[in-house]
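Protein modeling request. Please complete all fields; requests missing the sequence field cannot be processed.
Requester role: graduate student
Desired output: 3D structure, token encoding
Chains: 1
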Amino acid sequence: MIRQDHGLRSYGILRRRVTFARASLFAFLLLSGVSWGYILVATDSGVADLVSTKTWSNAGRFVGHLIGRDSPSQAAYLQLDRWVETGKLAYQTLLMSVLAIGLAGMAVLLTFLPGARNVSSGELGGRPSRPWQVLYYVLRMTFILTRAVPELVWAMIIVFFLSPGILPGAVALALHNYGVVGKLSAEVVENLEPGPARALKAAGASNVQMLLYGILPQAMPHFLTYLLYRWEVVIRTTVVVGFVSAGGLGREFRLSLSFFHYTDLTLIILWYLVLVIAVDLVSAGLRRLVLED
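Delivered output (293 residues):
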């Protein structure tokens, strides 16, 4: 009898341990292992190239070109005048990122409140109306469309009717990031505590006053934080839009790569590192100020 009770307890513990979630996890890991094994072994995946001598020899040769080991002239990153020339392009790249995030921020600031469901439906104490609800769906679809199209595609479209330069690149980056920041900011409003807004409405405040004094102050720190985060992403994406003649270091990177000016590529990469590190530090400092306030 004691053995039977012990067996029943062991069986119950085993059933509790083998839950549906754990069984699903084990099945997922098993299927993933089988799938990757089939891809790596039974198909021409090219994994063997990663460990081949030829691949690493080509990589070493390319790195040698980047540092100018076999170059007949002095490497570009060792010439002061080349640093000055590409520094002007780096300045244009920085301007492109600032203009892009500025355009996106202004557009989001004007639209993320009506793009929140609880604002358009009157859940925060406002008066629901049909036009506000229609505007909500229009803005939500706009957020989806603009962020669904990559920056490079936007740049390829915009460059057809805007002359090459930093403006088409900035507009392309702004369009994509408008959808990203707009969606995130609208969702922040949807998760806000409705008490302050409803209290203002009960005290006789108008809908505009309720938005300005009850909702916007709560949402602004999150909005600015998201905007600064996206600025860090934008400065890294400028090289992509620059490939379609949108100006800045990206365009010079494509030209240098086309003409096999490898040491110029190294110089451009160094400038990008400087820009990325500088923007990250400035963005982190500004976010810290926003969160402290």
